[in-house]
Amino acid sequence: MGATTLNKSGFCYTTNSFRKPKMNLLNIVILAAGKGTRMHSDKPKVLHALAGKPLLQHVLDTAAELSPFKTCVVYGHGGEAVPQAMASYETSFALQEPQLGTGHAVQQALPQLPDQGLTLILYGDVPLIQHTTLQQMLTSPDALTLLTIKLDQPAGYGRIVRDDTGNVIAIVEEKDASQAQRAIGEVNTGILAAPTHLLRNWLSQLSNNNVQGEYYLTDIVAMAVKQNVTVHTVHAPHVWEVLGINSKSQLADLERTWQKEQAHHLLTQGVALADPARLDVRGKLVCGRDVEIDVGCIFEGHVQLGNNVQVGAYTIIRNSSIASGTHIAPYSHIDQAEIGSQCQIGPYARIRPGSKLHNDVHIGNFVEVKNSEIAANSKANHLSYIGDASIGSRVNVGAGTITCNYDGVNKFRTIIEDDVFIGSDTQLVAPVTVARGSTIGAGSTITRDTPEGTLTLSRSKQITIAGWKRPTKKK
Ligand code: UD1
Ligand code: CA
Hints:
By secondary structure, the protein is an alpha/beta fold. A hairpin with a 5-residue loop joins strand 10 (159-162) and strand 11.
């Protein structure tokens, strides 16, 4: 990406994309300084996770989809924990100390923002706002745009006050509202967009002359009206997009709402879910046709399931891809793995990071595979550890086989070539190569490479002691 520069009208150019306007300049300020007392936690509220990701990270990811010129997170309570947790993000930070209200919070970010274009205000504890909704708020470069929503129970929210012709004239906070104003169902979500130079001017005029003694961001609405600046409203399409988190209970409720939303989305795409209420997607799940998912499954990060994949109950899959026709039996764990088509996995299989299984591989119960490649048509069906191994095609790994990949300090690889048969309860002490077509007798400890097509075994001789008696209990 080239350096981004501004021109006078506030258009944003990327220098190496032959100087065409990219978008009207956008700044995003994310408020995240609040205390979060009701979370009863030592962790700052915005770092608590929804769908496996900190609340603030949801907002930053959504913000990034709008390609802003500048993003600034206003933090305060919880100290440096917030900037530290978000260090990998392309955002700046502004400290708000003490926290004197939402208007005061935005003021802390303003010195970092250029005057051109719009500034959009988001909240670190309102995680599910969608970029498609925000996009609708960015179409009027000269107006103040408020995101509002109609609620049956508007208690606690700032009310949108309109005149007889329906124009917005003010936002009145619940605590400052009259009886008649409290009856208004249209509320302020808090999310708004305004021309940055106007916002700067309005915020400099704020007072804290209200019931809470705070500098209210919402007071800028009356200022805009007084200056004849158009006040637009955009209606949020879903309540869940604008719900804020103040307690663990609200967090759990929003988690369920979001999971139901995602389950519904998968169902409409044709994925068969045994029970849409018993599915957790913590990231992105992409499914082919005729995928079936049983109850209690968790998908984390980016997971891709090919056509006709079946996922058995209580399976956890994280950052992995599974190709068409593969069946995963219940209680399997798959993490950072690539699994081919027509494989049989589980029940109780554990496939760990760096594993690549080709087509038609069978991994059975209590088999752990780590950082290993297994070629087509190979099987390890019972009780094995396969770590740091490269296994060829048509290999049979007998029950209880262990790759001894670690000498306590260093890790070594085990190579098993095509058409090998490993007898049960074998230990392969790496580094070691079992050559093509060789057979290992059950119960062997293999420490040296085996020649092609041979039988190798290492066992002590079986003996029988005649006349031996079992011990009896002493009286
Ligand atoms: C605010 C709005 C209200 C709206 C409601 C929606 C104001 C004055 N009121 O009220 O109209 O209906 O949100 O939820 O804006 N924050 C800071 N620094 C501060 C104060 C707050 O960063 O000094 C952050 C908080 O972390 C929180 C957000 O701003 O994320 C909202 O603050 P809060 O005090 O909860 O505002 P509300 O009273 O809910
Ligand atoms: Ca609040």
